[in-house]
Amino acid sequence: MLRLSALATFIVLALSSAPASAQRVQAGMLECRGGESISFIVGSVSEFSCVYRPDLGPAQAYRARLTRAGLDVGVTAVSGLAWAVFAPTNQIGLGDLSGNYGGATAGAAVVLGVGANVLYGGSNNSFALQPLSIEGQVGLNVYAGVAGLELRFGQ
Fold first, then answer.
1. In the chain, what are the domain boundaries?
2. Strand ranges (DSSP E) for the chain?
3. 117: nearest Cα among 96, 146, 76
4. Which tens digit of pLDDT belongs to each residue from 69-101?
5. For 103, phi and psi rounded to 5 degrees?
6. Residue 20: left if φ>0, alpha if ψ -120 to 50, beta else—which one?
7. Cα(153)–Cα(6) distance, rounded to whole angstroms?
8. Which run of H or E residues covers position 11?
């Protein structure tokens, strides 16, 4: 399982190469926390409470739904995600990150675990959540495939 996780993480890193970041600047960090989730072999859906911490301006609250399709087996008790947010400018207004994102995902957890999610989208597909997210999990899980993130402003 660790070999699968390492291979999947390598694939995600390869997919995260820089065309999006070459045209964008890092504008802040998006941090999300979620509770228990159960995977269904071909996918999963997880809910998160998120905080966007911009380099300029006040913190912003978001709600997120992460949907994975592909290999996804296991149970997690707690999940946390953190992305570097890249945008055309470092000034992002309230709620501007709202939208739908898509990309590649991979990771594994045996009691504690890590994962990677490279996502693009948002308002006018102008944001990149990359170069990859850092995901911490507590549980037993393995996944690789594609991910979709629905991000909505407010609690």
1. 2-153
2. 25-34, 37-38, 41-54, 60-87, 99-121, 127-129, 134-153
3. 146
4. 888 777 777 678 888 999 998 888 899 999 999
5. 170, -160
6. alpha
7. 34
8. helix 2-15
Give per-residue pLDDT as tens, 57-69. Answer: 899 999 999 888 8
Tokens of 148: 């979709």
Confidence of residue 141 (pLDDT cuts 50, 70, 90): confident
With b meaning 16 or more CB within 10 Å and e meaning fewer, what string describes 78-116?
Answer: ebebbbbbbbeebebeebbbbbebebbbbbbbeeebebb
Which amino acid appears at position 2 of this protein? L
Which structure tokens are listed for 52?
Answer: 């966007």
Structure tokens at 91: 């000034």
Sign of CA dihedral 68, 42, 106, 76: positive
Residue 93 structure tokens: 């207004």
